[in-house]
Amino acid sequence: MNARPLPDPRAYVAAQRLVNTIHMDGSPEKLDDSYTVLSFIEDLQELEEPPPSSILVVGCRLGYEMRHLRKQWPHAEVVGLDIVPQFIEQASKEGKAILADMHALPFSPHAFQWIFCSGTLEHAYDAPLVAREMLRVASRGIYVTADIEPFPSTNASHWTCTEDPKEWEALFSHPEWRILSSDLLDRSLHLILMRGAL
To answer: pTM value?
Structure first.
C-alpha cells in the first residue's frame, strides 16, 4: 500500500476541499454512485439484520447516500461526515451532517451501529488510522468500498493506493471483527465487516 507524503495536514485538507468541490452541482461523482448504498441496503436485508438504529456515513459528500438510508430506515439516526464545508452545507438538507476529518472521528466508542463508507478510504493520508477509527466507532458493522488502483493515482485527491485487495482487507484485521464478504467489482473492493466471533 502506498500513500503520498504528507508535508502538512493543512495541505491535505486544502487539496481535498479544492478537488472535491467539482461535485457541487449536486451530481454524484459517477453515474452509478447510488448503486453502492443500494447494495448496502440489500446486503443488510439478505443478512436478515434488524433495521439499524444508527448509521454514520463517512465521506457523505452531498448527502445523496444519507437520503437513501433515511428513506429505507426512517427511524434510524443517519449522520453524515465530510471534510468539505460546501458538502456539509448541502448534506445538511438531508439530515444531520458534521464537518470533520475521518482520521479523528468525533464520536465515542460504539457510537453508531453501522458505518457506511464508499469511495472515501482512498482519500485518507493514513488509511490504517481511519480503519482503526471506524472499528472504534462502529458497534455492529462496517460497509466500506475502496478503489483498486496503481500508485500514484490519477485522482489528485486520492492519497492512498493499492492494486492488492488484500491490503485493504488487512487494515480491518481485528480480533473482535470478522469480514463477512469481500467482493471485487469493477476495480472497487466492497467489504462487509461485523463485530463478533465466527
So the answer is: 0.88
Query: Within a 10 A sphere around the Cβ of 71, how many other Cβ atoms?
Result: 11
The three three-digit cell numbers of residue 33, written as one number: 454512485
Regions of the chain short of the pLDDT cut 50: 26-28, 30-32, 198
Contact 102/132 with Cβ under 8 angstroms?
no
Report how far Cα 104 is from the mean position of its chain's Cα atoms: 14
What does the pLDDT read at residue 28?
45
- Give residue 198's pLDDT: 47
pLDDT at 135 (0 to 100): 97
Q: Do the strands 177-185 and 188-195 form a parallel or antiparallel pair, or are they unpaired?
A: antiparallel
Q: Could you give all domains of the chain from N- to C-terminal order, each with its CATH number?
A: 34-195 (3.40.50.150)
Residue 4 — φ and ψ, nearest 5°? Answer: -65, 150
